[in-house]
Amino acid sequence: MVHTLFAAVTLAALLVGSPAAQPAQATPAEAAPYLGDWTLELQGPNGPGTFTLSIKTDNDKVVAEIAIPNLPAQPITDVVKTDKTLVLRYSFPYEGNPVDAAVSLTPGAEGKVAAQIDFAGGAYTMTGTAVKKEKKP
User: Fold this and answer.
1) Which residues contact 101 (CB under 8 A, 6 or more apart)?
2) Which of 116, 131, 122, 119 minimizes the C-alpha distance to 42?
3) Cβ 135 vs Cβ 36: under 8 Å
4) Contact indicator for 17, 23 with CB cutoff of 8 Å
5) What is the DSSP letter of 26?
6) Is 17 helix (H, G, I), strand (E, B) or coil?
7) Contact predicate 26/81, CB 8 Å
8) Residue 88: which of 30, 45, 47 has the closest Cα?
9) Helix (H) or strand (E) holding 92
10) Is the pTM of this model over 0.85?
């Protein structure tokens, strides 16, 4: 019985994937071009939305915070780098239920940065641009 249970758990772990198969947390060096404050102007099926995104390092870890007007800012600690894209994953409560979200920032031509937020595994997607705010002297 114990051997069968152990075999089933091991097989499930292999099918789902091990943590090593997941992208590693972005390093401060990988995230350096993205550090700072951003404005995301996005469009979704229900209309436009403006988000503020702040990306920084804290004790050699890349962290962020995303906010929209009239709602509390959401902390983000799951930040990964894939090719050129920085992906920031977080969860927020909606009507008492957690909703997963992933913000993607991808540099493009002429210094423009494409932005996308996938909510609930892509059930609702908003796309647009991200503009980095200038640092104040």
Assistant:
1) 89, 90, 91, 92, 117, 118, 119, 120
2) 116
3) yes
4) no
5) P
6) coil
7) yes
8) 30
9) strand 85-94
10) no
Least confident of 10-24, 37-51, 64-78, 106-120: 10-24
Tens of pLDDT, residue by residue over 109-124, are: 888 999 999 999 999 9
Q: pLDDT tens-digit profile of 82-110?
A: 988 999 999 988 899 999 999 999 999 88
For the purposes of burial, counting CB atoms within 10 Å of the CB of 76, is it exposed (0-12), middle (13-18) or buried (19 or more)?
Answer: buried
| Domain architecture of the chain: domains with CATH | 22-132 (2.40.128)
Which two structure tokens, joined as six digits, stand for 9? 């758990």
Q: Which residue has the tokens 């992906």?
A: 87
